[in-house]
Amino acid sequence: MNKIRENVLNGLTVDAVEEQVRLGNVNTMPEQSGKKIKDIIMGNIFTYFNGIFCLIALLLIAAQSFRSLTFLPVIIVNIVIGIVQQLRAKSVLDNLSLLSMAEYKAIREGQEISVPFDKLVLSDVIILESGQQIPADAEVLEGEVLVNEALLTGESDEINKKSGSNLMSGSFVVSGSCHARLVCVGANSYAAKLTAKAKEIKEKPSEMIHDINLIIKIVGIIIIPIGLALYCEAIYINQNTFSEAIVSMVGAVIGMIPEGLYLLVTVALALSATRLAKRQVLLHDMRSTEALARVDVLCVDKTGTITDNEMKVAEVLAPVNGVEDRMVESEKLLAQYVHTISDSNSTAKALCNYYKEQEKLQVVSMMPFNSKSKYSEIVVEGMTYRLGAPEFLLSKTALEENQLLLEEHAKKGERILSFVNVLDDQTEPLLFICIMNSLRPNVKETFAYLASQEVTVKVISGDNPLTVAEIAAAVGIPDAEKYIDATMLETQKDYEDAVEKYTVFGRVKPEQKKELVLAIKASGLKVAMTGDGVNDILAMKEADCSIAMGAGSDAARQAAQVVLMDSDFSHMKEIISEGRRNINNITRSATLFLYKNLFSMLLAAFSIINAFSYPLKPSQVSLISMFNIGIPAFLLALEANEKKQKSRFLHEALFQSLPAALTSFFSIAAMVVFGQTFGISADDVGIASTFLLSVVGFMILHRICMPMNRYRSFVFICSIIGLIFCSYNFNTLFDIKAVSVSCIMLVTVFAIAEESVMRNLTRWFSFARKKLLSSSPSAPMGISNKYNR
User: Fold this and answer.
1) For residues 643 and 209, what is the distance between their CA atoms, to the nearest angstrom?
2) Are 366 and 379 within 8 A, CB to CB?
3) What is the pLDDT of residues 542-565, one digit of tens each?
4) Catalytic residue among 137, 211, 285, 301
5) Among 265, 476, 607, 671, which one is least packed by beta carbons within 10 Å?
């Protein structure tokens, strides 16, 4: 057996390495980001939305109506912005990886050589030492190490690994050294498989984008029969030429498609993504901010979110009945001890950072910390010192004497270490050291902001629930005293009851995090999940919005929609603020776009039924789109607005736009019939229709700008001036020829009627909306009053 083990420890031969390379068993990680550049470009170009406009453009070119192609720049800009944003996210993610590309000591043909991470092969024997990350799944052959698997399991406990133990890629060696044989490499390793699972996340379209896509699809289907009917009517009934028929048909079709809304959404989200990128926030998708802005419950982990991964010394205490005068001498001794011991775990680093002295002890023998004994030891001439858990080092009497002191600090979420000397098998406590994870900067202010924004926080951690609850209370999370040990949760009913009653969940396993998220969603609430480890991925995939810390695992970053590159949790305020700005302003601006689309659809149907040519030309529709809709909508979308939007995007936009659309339809349809009856020229009817459409457009613009402030007043006045200026100075471009007396009279009479119709329809729709809202339940079934603050 010894000979076999000796042969194994000699490592692979050169021929064996070459054979593994030939078989592809090399530790090369698969491409990190989910989409290829080609997929991103194709995905943004070949859409149903773009296909509609491509067809329209070809028809206009065939009709030689090049002046009506003013919509094309909008489409091109929309495509470019989408591609650039996604390529940027891909580039950032490709530069991150779960495993650091370091070099490792490998044994080949009995010789110790240095091998790069991606040149290791299956069955390679490597030497792992303190501080190294495990590059691939392995088995310990010889030696003993303490391993931190926090990024994989979520638990910060250090696990002892000895001969025969399995090592998972992505974990870290805290102390000790060992020889290990690689059993799974590259794409077959644990870390790579988890990263692949992260890529499997299906894209979650936001509510607003879903509604806009729904509008586009419905309109895209409707315009095909309407367009064909308008064309056939113009050719066969009204005896128009091909060019006239195409222009008339396109004038109606263009008005029905909210092309500017799509661009507005893209630009607004791109600006948000740019602003957040400057603050070290990466969005996998520009729409991620909306999902977070609508969140009702935010689930956070303790380590990595509330606290950082580094530990610090909170306080050094003298034991009860200890001699205060010996504190200085004992601390000097402890400082020498921590700079002598070979440990490199987070506790040892915290102590070394606290005690800067570099003086070391003259060591006779030394034993690093291990999870079996729960302490480390240094023997100097005539004295033995130990550092570790009090319950493993102190006598029963010493523990009882110091029990109240230890409990007082444990309740603060601190971990207590005891520094003792050993005399004749009797231990004497010299010092107690209180260690804790550092709170992230501005974390208290962030949780206060979340509370003010009606976002409930749930803390989900793999650590002790009491410790987590104390830390949650320290950062001001409401109801932090309500905690539970997740090992008590078994059935689905247990989870649903627990999310109603408790705020802090401790000892949570990775699969339980997922169940907790699902239980909250079952109550009809929108959930966001933060995480930094692989153990968080299952829950992040189920959440409505997922946020990863930049310092966490690559698998978690891949799974998340939002990545805090500098791991600063306080950026949550900026993300929510950006998301709400987008939701509120785009919802408001969408009213303007839908007004034009609904009006165009109604008038087109009326034109088909009554067999008359559509009165508005594409260039006239473009003029209205520019000053009634496009420019004011874009400017209003830049305004700060943090109000939480509770109503659905589509419902809100439709209720706001329908009164105006119906008003314009009734007035222009009546005017067209009036014009035909009394022989008013088609040009005059078209020009009058343009101005009547703009009058109602400014009415609705005025309404959504209320209450007026200096900025909104500026937008409103500039839009009116811009329309008048272009109508007068670029009348040929927009088909606004000399305005006749009959045209002025038509506009005056029908504009007065429009004001009355608009006012009454608005009042009626407002009443109907209130009735509809009052008849619907105030909250989904199963939601406690606590959520409905």
Assistant:
1) 19
2) yes
3) 888 889 888 776 667 777 888 888
4) 301
5) 476
